[in-house]
Design goal:
Blueprint: E1 4-9, E2 12-17, H1 18-40, H2 48-56, H3 64-96, H4 108-123, H5 132-151, H6 158-182, H7 188-196, H8 204-224, H9 235-240, H10 245-267, H11 273-284, H12 289-313, H13 322-342
Helix pairs in contact: 1-12, 3-8, 3-10, 3-11, 3-12, 4-5, 4-6, 4-7, 5-6, 5-10, 8-10, 11-12, 12-13
């Protein structure tokens, strides 16, 4: 039996597994070190002592612009995007009871992609690029609503959500390709960069907007988190336990889509993070949602930070999108999961 620690504050109590606590602590330290290395490495190398001096004492130096305006916003945005995608993938895998579920496989990413490609092709000349995140979020919501509607037959089931998600994702992918072919060449390059997924050109304004969404969605997730572990059981068992599986599934799907949509809106269609992070988390900690949520978010953050670090340092002077390297990691992992399910 796992060793546990009980915390009590008045009427509030929490059971914490010691192993989970130390895994989370280690991942937090790893994330901090990862951020420090990412701040240090690049076309201009910055020593660690200069980074600490710049962060702890707000004085102007030769590295101020590089740290505060170029590298730190990218790192913070990558971290928030990884957390959002990791949590979204964990929720989806729980509610559909399928280890292959993730925002990109179930069509959420495809919906955002169609909306962004249509915006870049037909509306970018009339509207400012500040409207692009809103279109991405609306596209993701419309795709999720369509999948849920097509899956409805006196209620929804996990298998119908998965099959409809894959079907809708395929159709939306074809529409995206068709729109790119018919669109003007001058917008194709920027559209492809967004479709690949990149945190290049991150602004503190984007980070503030994304943070607001996370501040709203994570407390909602905490409120519904007690329903996630039971959702791995059959619906008939959930009804016998006094739960409403359809209502809970709809609310949790709403939270998962919101987390994925805002991450995609500000960093592009980054794939596989929502698939990989929950699986790594399950290998590290027991199947308690609270521990899995912490670990999935931290693993997702490190994946995106690491991919962005490789993209902007290994191929200098080129600055390649982070989504390329996440796909390089994610595709073999996805094939491994398929083979594991087969055997």
């Amino acid at each position: 039996m796992a060793k546990t620690l009980i915390l009590r504050f008045g009427r509030f109590s929490r059971l914490i597994e010691i192993k989970t606590f130390w895994i989370i602590f280690f991942l937090c330290i790893l994330t901090i070190l990862h951020c420090m290395f990412s701040l240090s490495l690049g076309k201009v190398f910055i020593p660690f002592d200069q980074i600490l001096k710049e962060i702890l004492t707000p004085t102007q130096s030769e590295y101020t612009f590089i740290i505060e305006s170029l590298r730190l916003p990218r790192i913070v945005l990558a971290m928030l995007v990884g957390i959002a995608l990791g949590l979204s993938g964990l929720i989806l895998q729980n509610i559909v009871r399928n280890p292959l579920a993730s925002p990109d496989i179930l069509g959420v990413t495809s919906g955002a992609s169609v909306a962004v490609v249509c915006f870049m092709t037909f509306l970018s000349a009339q509207l400012s690029l500040h409207w692009l995140p809103l279109f991405a979020i609306l596209g993701a919501w419309c795709a999720a609503f369509l999948i849920y509607l097509l899956s409805w037959k006196g209620g929804t089931t996990s298998i119908r959500l998965v099959l409809m998600g894959i079907g809708v994702s395929t159709i939306l992918g074809a529409i995206t390709t068709l729109t790119l072919v018919l669109g003007p060449l001058n917008t194709m390059l920027s559209t492809y960069v967004w479709l690949t997924g990149s945190v290049y050109g991150a602004l503190w304004q984007d980070i503030a907007h994304l943070s607001i969404w996370l501040i709203v969605m994570i407390p909602l997730l905490i409120c519904f988190s007690r329903y996630l572990n039971p959702h791995e059981l059959e619906d008939s068992i959930l009804v016998g336990l006094g739960l409403n599986p359809e209502r809970n599934r709809m609310c949790l799907l709403f939270i998962a889509v919101a987390l994925a949509a805002v991450a995609i809106a500000y960093a592009g269609a980054i794939a596989f993070v929502g698939l990989i992070a929950p699986h790594i988390a399950r290998q590290l900690v027991p199947r308690s949602f609270a521990g899995l949520a912490w670990v999935s978010g931290l693993v997702g953050a490190n994946l995106v930070i690491f991919a962005d670090l490789i993209g902007r340092t290994v191929f200098l002077p080129l600055d390649l999108p982070a989504g390329i390297f996440i796909a390089v990691f994610g595709t073999p992992f996805f094939i491994y999961l398929l083979l594991k399910q087969r055997f």
